[in-house]
Amino acid sequence: MPVNRNPTVRQRRLARMLKELRVDANLTLAQSARHLACAESKISRIEAAQSGIRLVDLRLLLDLYGVTDPESRGRMETLSREGRLRGWWDRYSETLSPLYADYIALESDASDMYSIQTLLVPGILQTEDYTRAVVRAQIEDAAPDQIEILTKVRQERRSVLAREAPMRVWAVLSESALRHQVGGRSVMREQLRSLAESAESPNINVQILPEASEIHAALFGPVTILSFPEVAETDVVYVDSLLSTLYIEEPGEVFKYANLFRRALAESLPRKESIALIERIASEEV
Question: Per residue in 216-258, pLDDT tens?
Fold first, then answer.
């Protein structure tokens, strides 16, 4: 089988899960290879996402690793079958950076999102006008076409909130993020009203971190943690800045970010009080 030099996010996720399942089962590469009657190098390539895996081989490995739950097996088989498929975002590949496209791919398959936002409303909950204002500010030389494409992409990302099994979102926002006049007062008012309306949805929980909270000292910027429906799959932490994007998958490091999120959530206002604060700031006259 030829080496896959450009694996998709789904292929990398399946490869990582298979390696974690093998390690958890205390099996070596040699033992897995003997089960498939193949060379160790084949298992290594599969676990490195350098080659795909046939369904018959996947099922044999899942048997070996003790994966008996039908839903878990079905999700992993779907990853195998659809691993090479590109998502709706691929049609914007000329505009999107590869790292942003990878993030959208992960987000599209995630079951849960945990987000800490210190300055802005989470992208998945932004209105069109708010997004346009953010893009103009962040990309100083952005052409009008680029602004519109990035705005459209961000709106299309919201589809995960309306699918058959909608993504569950837990968002912690610094109170100051509600008071920044991104795009001007009318744009901000519309955004806050939209945010309050979204926060009423059963799958969306928005809580505001008061300005007086000392936990702000531990927040170095926006952080997003994505979780997936498969128990065997590691959460992914996404940290974005002006000049770099960082993905964190090492369990110990992911735990530290998850613990930071829990601390910030504990310091935040309860859900109903948070929505009331958002609505109150939206109605204020500046």
Answer: 999 888 999 999 887 667 888 988 765 567 888 888 999 999 9
Q: Are 183 and 122 in contact (CB under 8 A)?
A: no
pTM: 0.81
Q: Compute how many other C-beta atoms are within 10 angstroms of the C-beta atom of residue 206.
A: 26
Encoding tokens for residue 203?
A: 């799958």
Give the pLDDT confidence of 41-81 residue by residue, as tens digits.
Answer: 999 988 888 888 889 999 999 999 999 988 888 888 888 88
Q: Which residues contact 164 (CB under 8 A, 6 or more apart)?
A: none
Classify strands 112-117 and 168-174 as parallel, antiparallel or unpaired: parallel
Mean pLDDT for the chain overall: 89
Cα separation, 234 vs 21, whole angstroms: 11
